[in-house]
Design a protein that fits this description.
Number of helices: 23
Number of strands: 11
Helix content: 55-70%
Largest sheet: 5 strands, antiparallel
Radius of gyration: 30 Å
Shape: elongated
Strand content: 5-15%
Structural class: alpha+beta
């Protein structure tokens, strides 16, 4: 591996014009494809195999033309203090609004609250529902404008009017400000770490090119592959973070090789062969983790994972080829480590030089391994405690900021009709095989009325064939509550008995039931997914480190990081601790996909730091240093760069905390805090402490396994045959002279 990448790095350095042209051409091609691609439609959300999805599919089949997937809008009216919605003026305003909405080209139906009993018992709140023939994300701007204009006109009469429903759910705009802040912080860290504007600019430039190619490709294929906005956001988030980090490690190693006296082409080759090998395997762990999301069985997650994995592959390829090419262009502007001190005449001998912070910290850990290990493990364990109270759900209008009309409409409906009104359950009675469909539907209705936490049950409504009925159930509790989840399970349990007695199937669907099934599916898939991802990465790390205990320690350290990160997410977003600092206005259940998503992404990123840090220790050990000396050497060469890479990644992820989308905000915070725990606690403290305690045992590998494993030579042992001081090819000499 190291020898191949060494040759690739030197080739890219010499043929830099050709390499740069290829990447610019790919970026241009992807950009043109994105610009000319048709606008993506609504992203389909399906959960194959769940009861809610089966019921939804049955509705589309048995109620043709009902636009089961059509968007909905809901205008909620509240009368001024001391008035009621049934007052003549207020009633006239509502009826006028209903008539105006009915004229819309995409409108299927509009309900009149005074004929559909959509007025609260105290008469102060009423609502009208608008159904469209297209999904909410596909509605025309003119349709949304008409909905908002009707609400504004009604409010001008003195009523309190707000709009809810998915009809207002336009495509989310990217949080550009947060991303710019993250990039700005990354730029500052790069300059401080590398001490050169040119050197710092290379990782930023290559990361932006890589993300540009990845996100543009996703945009170009979004309509054809049904890719949503979140897919691009995830690819942008991961691509920027790993793209900068991978390039940083190669540039940093290049400067170190220059400091050892090698010429620039040789330094580029060796940097690509050694640090580049670590980049390849670090990238592979991230790709495994992201692509592994496919095993969950949710198409949306599969597409998100594969798209982000593709962006990581692009980041790896750019780091291995474009970075050496740009180093060729940079010439002497990328100076070796310590050159400034040489120019000032203040260079000290190795004996006189003061040990760096990484060296001092590694020496301290080696002297106090037990104390450092206990402090790190106990500290992360304490932070992980809130994760034991984790409640899962999906965000709805109730989790929106109170400044939004959707949230105000949600609150008005809760005030007028009860909290469960925002999350109605749809019961589908498939009575095709029943001898008496109406009797079966009546049995279901009567049974549901007798359950706990039921506020309202509407009469059964049959299709034209008379073999399928729908029943709407309004719970007493809000959609994301445990009580509503228990009610869904109770209806399904009761449906089993109904089927046995009447041969009619009872299925529960609706947004609330879909969310519950989605959460359950993700929970059931978590352990198999964890086993697959950790198992594959464990085997990969055995090949990289040629050790059993080092990969095992890496996996256990990851579990500490992700549990502590989940604990922090629960404390902030579910309990509200310090939530005001990052703009969390409403606490509630944690997004259902958060645990499995964090397991995948954080594991891949955690293994990045493990590979970058420990391969340098492995390299020193292979070259004859004792285990303790190897730890110090690894920290001396890698700790500063790993710390910088972690800060950069935290800055990139942290930039997304400013997003108005609660899901993006939660993902940004969760990944940023997870990187902090993993890089600065696990990899910088727990890892060296464990290695110090294990000593030579850390690098133990059974002889039979050592013979069976391929030698990937991550530590660059094979590069000794390519010593820069040896004879050079005449063509190479001429190339160096020209440079």
């Amino acid at each position: 591996m190291a020898t191949f990448l060494y040759k690739l790095g030197r080739l890219a350095f010499r043929r830099r014009h050709f390499v740069a042209l290829i990447w610019v051409a790919l970026l241009t091609l992807a950009g043109v494809g994105a610009a000319s691609a048709p606008a993506p439609g609504a992203t389909s959300f399906s959960i194959p195999g769940t009861e809610a999805q089966k019921a939804f599919d049955l509705l589309e089949q048995r109620f043709p033309g009902a636009s089961a997937d059509g968007g909905t809008g809901r205008i909620v009216f509240k009368a001024p203090e001391g008035q009621k919605m049934t007052d003549a003026d207020n009633k006239a305003t509502v009826e006028k609004t209903v008539k105006e909405l009915g004229d819309g080209s995409e409108v299927v139906s509009v309900t009149d609250p005074f004929t559909t009993n959509a007025v609260s018992k105290d008469g102060t709140v009423a609502y009208t529902s608008v159904r469209y023939d297209a999904p909410g994300m596909e509605l025309k701007d003119s349709t949304r404008d008409a909905l908002e204009a009707a609400a504004d006109e009604a409010q001008a009469t003195g009523l309190t009017v707000d709009v809810g429903g998915d009809a207002l759910q336009a495509a989310a705009e990217p949080g550009a400000i947060g991303e710019v802040i993250g990039l700005a912080i990354a730029a500052v860290v790069l300059v401080l770490t590398l001490g050169s504007l040119v050197a710092a600019g290379l990782p930023l430039l290559t990361a932006i090119i890589g993300v540009g190619i990845g996100v543009s490709t996703i945009t170009a294929l979004a309509n054809a592959l049904d890719l949503g906005d979140t897919t691009s956001t995830l690819a942008l988030m991961i691509g920027l973070a790993v793209g900068i980090d991978y390039a940083l490690f190669i540039v940093s190693r290049y400067r170190g090789e220059l400091a050892d006296g090698r010429d620039r082409e040789e330094a580029a080759g060796r940097a690509t062969g050694t640090a580049g090998s670590a980049v390849v395997f670090a990238g592979l762990t991230v790709v495994i983790a992201l692509a592994g999301l496919s095993v969950v069985g949710v198409p949306m997650l599969t597409k998100m994972g594969l798209a982000a994995a593709g962006t990581v592959v692009v980041a790896v390829l750019i780091a291995l080829t474009m970075i050496p090419a740009l180093l060729g262009y940079a010439g002497k502007k990328v100076r070796p480590t310590g050159e400034k001190r040489k120019r000032r005449g203040v260079e000290k001998s190795e004996a006189q030089a003061k040990p760096g912070m990484g060296t001092r910290w590694a020496s301290f850990v080696i002297r106090r391994p037990v104390a450092v290990l206990l402090l790190g493990v106990v500290g992360l364990g304490a932070i992980a405690v809130p994760a034991t109270q984790l409640e899962l759900g999906l965000p709805d209008d109730g989790s929106q900021p109170t400044s939004t009309t959707q949230r105000r409409a949600y609150d008005l409906l809760s005030e007028g009709f009860g909290p469960g009104f925002n999350g109605p359950l749809m019961i589908v009675v498939d009575a095709k095989d029943s001898d008496d469909p109406k009797a079966a539907a009546t049995t279901v209705t009567d049974g549901i009325k007798g359950l706990k936490d039921v506020a309202t049950v509407t009469p059964a409504a049959f299709n034209k064939a008379g073999d399928t009925a729908t029943i709407t159930v309004i719970p007493d509790s809000k959609p994301s509550s445990v009580q509503t989840e228990d009610l869904v399970h109770a209806i399904r349990d009761q449906g089993t008995d109904v089927e046995a007695d009447t041969d009619a199937r009872v299925l529960v669907t609706g947004t609330t039931a879909m969310n519950i099934d989605f959460s359950q599916k993700l929970t059931d898939a978590l352990v198999p997914y964890l086993a697959l991802v950790v198992g594959l990465a464990f085997l990969l790390l055995i090949v990289v480190f040629r050790s059993i205990l080092v990969p095992l320690k890496a996996a256990l350290g990851f579990l500490l990081s992700v549990l502590a990160a989940l604990g922090a997410v629960v404390a902030v977003f579910q309990w509200g601790w310090l939530g005001g600092l990052i703009g969390v206005e409403e606490t509630g259940p944690i997004m259902s996909m958060m645990p499995i998503f964090m397991v995948g992404v954080v594991f891949g990123l955690a293994m990045d730091y493990e590979v970058f840090l420990v391969t340098r220790m492995r390299e020193a050990h292979v070259h004859g240093e004792s285990p303790s000396q190897a730890i110090v050497t690894g920290f001396r060469h890698s700790a500063r760069v790993v710390a910088a890479a972690a800060v950069i990644m935290m800055a990139v992820f942290g930039g997304f905390i400013s997003s108005s989308e609660s899901m993006i905000k939660m993902i940004g915070f969760g990944l940023a805090i997870a990187v902090f725990f993993d890089a600065f606690v696990v990899r910088m403290a727990v890892v060296p402490a464990v290695l110090a305690l294990l000593g030579k045992k850390a690098w133990w590998l059974p002889k039979w396994l050592d013979r069976a494993l391929p030698n990937v030579d991550v530590e660059g042992e094979g590069l000794r045959a390519h010593d820069a001081d040896g004879p050079k090819d005449p063509d190479e000499e001429r190339e160096l002279v020209r440079v």
